[in-house]
Amino acid sequence: MPLTPRTNDHVLDWMRRAESRMDEADRRTLYSVVISAGGLTVQDLGGIKQVDRDGDTVFFVGGGTGAFTRPDGSPQPISYLADDRGRWRIAVFDPNPNLGDYRQFVAIYDYSGNIILGDDVESGTGLARPYVPLSVSDSHFSRWPGTDRGEWTTLSKVRLSNQHPRLSIDARHTTDQSATTGEIRLWGRTDANPGGTQLGETKQVVFAEQLGGWTVPAVGRWAEMAEVWLQARRTGGTGTVRACIAYASGVQS
């Protein structure tokens, strides 16, 4: 039996349904998307943000207006991560773009909203926060701790919580007589290993004020309480071997 041709009204109806579905697809929320080659580009300070179920924005990349507007009147590109309260925890921005030079900095916030880590954009180099303590040592060797004994004697102790993988320690040293010689070393120990072990090489001490340094692996595990002792001994003569810690800091690998 031959097919009966369909009317033009049927074709028009099909086209209307197809157009309706396309419009619905344009308005549909994307629940799962995978982007491979080509990536995703957002132009002209368009933004991307993530909003949690409480309505708090926990991630944002885009243009900031109002108080964040740049000196030329355009939106400032801002990026930030927030916690589940909507409070900023990491950000790249200039909070006062129209005060002084417009320069963005990186900021990490604590739970109360204080900046605990940030770079110094005014100079363009180094940290703004946190403030790093500076080391102090006595200016005259006669007031440095000393020993006239032939066995290793502890002169100074540094107590620390391990946060870095390595330690950088400098020591000033000398003897108080020209015919006297000695040695200094670092001895590391932890509460779990009170016996300890030597850190780095042994340094020779003569009758001259010198500055020697070590960069050594940290003692013990991360966050473990540890101590580094500066030790000295006399190897020749009848005088005193003197030394003091001039600088001590945790450093990266």
Q: Care to describe what's here?
A:
Strand 6 and strand 7 form a beta hairpin. The protein contains one helix and 15 strands; from the N terminus they run αβββββββββββββββ. The longest helix is centred in the first third of the chain and has 20 residues, at 8-27. With 253 residues, the chain is mainly beta. The N and C termini lie far apart (85 Å). The chain is 8% helix and 43% strand. The chain has one helix at residues 8-27, and strands at 48-51, 57-64, 76-82, 88-93, 105-109, 115-119, 127-129, 146-147, 153-161, 166-175, 181-190, 197-205, 210-217, 225-236, 241-251. A seven-stranded antiparallel beta sheet has the order 1-2-3-4-5-6-7, with no helix packed on it. A four-stranded antiparallel beta sheet has the order 8-15-10-13, with no helix packed on it.
Features:
single chain, 253 residues, mainly beta, 7-stranded antiparallel β-sheet, 4-stranded antiparallel β-sheet, 1 helix, 15 strands, 8% helix, elongated
Secondary-structure content class: mainly beta
Query: Total number of β-strand segments?
Result: 15
Q: Spans of 5+ residues with little confidence (pLDDT < 50)? A: none
Strand order of the largest sheet: 1-2-3-4-5-6-7
Q: Give the helix level as a range of percent.
A: under 10%
